[in-house]
C-alpha cells in the first residue's frame, strides 16, 4: 500500500529546494538533468548563505565537486574554503577532546561526549564531514563541581550567565559554558541532556549503554545508538529543526539500524515518541532517509506528521534562534510550536513551573538566602507587581 502523505513544501525557496535535492541524492551527477530549472534559476549567492546557515557545507562540498559546469566555479571554491577551515577546526577539537578526556579520567570524573568529533566520526565516518563549534560533555550532577574546578585549573573561563533561586538551575537549565581564551575552544558542561520539562534517562543508564570512540589515542565515551537518537531528536526539535545539519545526523544514524523495539520503548518512556516521529518524517520527506522496519508506525502517526509540517516554518526562511533579538513573529511561533511538542504531562509540568520562583523575584524583592523559601508564596504577587510597573 502506498504512502499518500507529503509535506507541504510550496513555500520553500528555489535555493532550499536545490540544497535539499543535492543532500538527498545518492549520486549527485545526474541532478542537473533531473532538475534543470533549479540549477538555472538558483541565486547562487543565496544558495551559499543557506549552506552556511544550515551547517551542511562539509557534506555538500564533495557532492558539488561532481556537478561540474552546472555549478559556478566560485561557488565550489567558496564551499571548499569553508570545508577546509572546518577540517582544521575539527582536528583542533579532536585534540582538545582527547586532552580533556584524559584529564577527566585522571580525576575519576565520568563524562559522555555528546556531539563534536566523536559524532562526526560515528555518523559520517570522517570528522571533516560535520561541523562543530564546541565540545559538549555530560557529567553526573554530583561530579559537576569537580569538572568545573578542573576546567578552571586548565585555563577555561566560566560564563556565569545563569542566575538562580532555590536551586532552580538544576532543572531550568541543562549546561554551563566555559571558554579557553588562548585555545579558542568552548566547552558546554551538561548535567542534563535538555532543560525541563524534558524526560530523559539518568546518567547511570546512559553510562551503562555507552560506547567508546577510538577516534583519538585515548578512547572517550559517548552515547549508545538509541540514546544518541533520543538526544539528537530532542535537541533538533527544541530548536525547530532550524538547521538541516540536525536532520542529516538523523538520516546518518538511521543507516546504523538502531534497535527499533528498544528505541520505540525508550522514546515512549521519556515522552518523545511523536518527536521521534517528527524527525523521521522530516528526514524521509526532505532527505530521502530510509525508515527502518519497526519505525514506520512512529513516522506515520498523525501527530508526528502534523508536528513535522509545523517545523516547515523554520525551513521556509533562515531562522537563527541564537541570534538575539529573535523577530517577534518567530519568537511567538516558536513558543507555540514548542508547547505543541510536549506530552500532556510535560505541558502540565511546564505550566506549573511558572508558579516556582524565578531569579527575577529575588531581584524584585531581595531577601536573605535563609528566607528564599518565602518566594514560593510571594511569586504571584511579585509577578503581578512587575507587570503593573511595566504598564505604568
Give a quick rundown of the structure.
It comes from Paenibacillus sabinae T27. It is built from 20 helices and seven strands.
Topology, element by element:
Blueprint lengths: L13 H11 L6 H4 L1 H6 L2 H10 L3 H9 L7 H34 L5 E2 L3 H8 L10 E4 L5 H10 L3 E3 L9 H4 L2 E6 L4 E6 L12 H6 L2 E3 L6 E3 L2 H14 L5 H11 L5 H10 L3 H15 L8 H5 L1 H14 L12 H14 L2 H10 L5 H6 L10 H16 L2
Parallel strand pairs: 2-5
Antiparallel strand pairs: 1-2, 3-4, 4-5, 6-7
Helix pairs in contact: 1-4, 4-6, 5-6, 11-12, 11-13, 11-14, 12-14, 13-14, 14-16
The radius of gyration is 22 Å
Q: How many DSSP H or I helices?
A: 20
Q: How many independent structural domains?
A: 2
Helix and strand element order? HHHHHHEHEHEHEEHEEHHHHHHHHHH
Q: Provide the residue-averaged pLDDT.
A: 93
CATH top level assignment of the largest domain? Alpha Beta
Strand elements, count: 7
As a percent range, the share of helical residues equals 55-70%
Major pleated sheet: 5 strands, mixed
CATH topology of the largest domain: Beta Polymerase, domain 2
Shape: globular
Span of the ends, CA to CA:
63 Å
- Low-pLDDT parts are none
Describe this structure in words.
Helix content is 55%, strand content 7%. A hairpin with a 4-residue loop joins strand 4 and strand 5 (185-190). The protein is of the alpha+beta class and 392 residues long. It has 2 domains: 14-316 and 324-349, 2-Layer Sandwich (Beta Polymerase, domain 2); 357-390, no CATH class. It is globular, with a radius of gyration of 22 Å. The strands form 2 sheets. It has a 5-stranded mixed beta sheet with strand order 1-2-5-4-3. Strands 6-7 form a two-stranded antiparallel ribbon. It is built from 20 helices and 7 strands.
Amino acid at each position: 500500500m502506498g504512502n499518500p502523505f507529503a509535506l507541504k513544501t510550496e513555500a520553500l525557496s528555489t535555493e532550499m529546494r536545490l540544497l535539499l535535492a543535492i543532500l538527498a541524492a545518492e549520486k549527485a551527477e545526474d541532478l542537473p538533468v533531473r532538475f534543470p530549472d533549479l540549477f538555472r534559476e538558483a541565486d547562487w549567492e543565496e544558495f551559499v548563505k543557506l549552506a552556511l546557515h544550515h551547517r551542511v557545507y562539509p557534506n555538500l562540498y564533495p557532492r558539488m565537486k561532481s556537478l561540474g559546469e552546472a555549478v559556478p566555479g566560485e561557488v565550489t571554491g567558496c564551499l571548499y574554503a569553508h570545508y577546509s577551515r572546518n577540517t582544521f577546526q575539527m582536528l583542533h577539537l579532536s585534540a582538545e577532546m582527547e586532552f580533556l578526556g584524559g584529564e577527566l579520567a585522571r580525576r575519576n570524573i565520568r563524562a559522555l561526549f555528546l556531539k563534536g568529533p566523536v559524532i562526526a566520526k560515528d555518523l559520517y565516518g570522517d570528522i571533516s564531514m560535520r561541523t562543530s563549534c564546541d565540545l559538549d560533555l555530560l557529567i553526573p550532577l554530583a561530579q559537576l563541581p569537580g569538572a568545573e574546578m578542573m576546567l578552571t585549573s586548565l585555563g577555561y573561563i566560566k560564563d556565569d550567565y545563569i542566575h538562580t533561586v532555590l536551586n532552580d538551575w538544576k532543572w531550568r537549565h541543562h549546561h554551563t559554558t566555559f571558554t579557553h581564551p588562548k585555545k579558542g575552544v568552548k566547552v558546554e558542561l551538561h548535567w542534563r541532556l535538555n532543560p525541563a520539562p524534558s524526560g530523559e534517562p539518568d546518567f547511570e543508564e546512559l553510562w551503562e549503554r555507552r560506547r567508546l570512540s577510538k577516534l583519538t589515542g585515548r578512547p572517550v565515551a559517548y552515547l549508545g545508538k538509541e540514546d544518541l537518537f533520543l538526544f539528537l531528536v530532542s535537541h533538533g526539535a527544541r530548536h525547530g529543526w532550524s538547521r538541516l545539519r540536525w536532520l542529516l545526523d538523523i538520516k546518518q544514524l538511521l543507516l546504523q539500524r538502531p534497535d527499533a523495539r528498544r528505541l520505540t520503548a525508550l522514546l515512549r518512556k521519556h515522552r518523545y515518541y511523536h518527536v521521534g516521529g517528527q524527525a523521521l518524517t522530516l528526514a524521509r520527506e526532505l532527505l530521502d532517509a530510509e525508515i527502518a522496519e519497526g519505525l514506520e508506525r512512529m513516522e506515520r502517526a498523525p501527530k508526528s506528521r502534523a508536528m513535522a509540517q509545523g517545523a516547515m516554518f523554520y525551513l521556509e526562511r533562515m531562522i537563527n534562534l541564537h541570534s538575539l533579538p529573535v523577530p517577534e513573529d518567530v519568537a511567538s511561533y516558536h513558543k507555540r510550536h514548542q508547547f505543541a511538542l510536549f506530552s500532556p504531562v510535560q505541558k502540565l509540568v511546564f505550566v506549573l513551573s511558572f508558579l516556582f520562583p524565578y531569579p527575577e523575584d529575588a531581584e524584585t524583592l531581595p531577601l536573605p538566602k535563609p528566607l528564599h523559601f518565602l518566594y514560593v508564596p510571594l511569586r504571584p504577587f511579585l509577578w503581578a507587581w512587575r507587570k503593573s510597573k511595566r504598564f505604568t
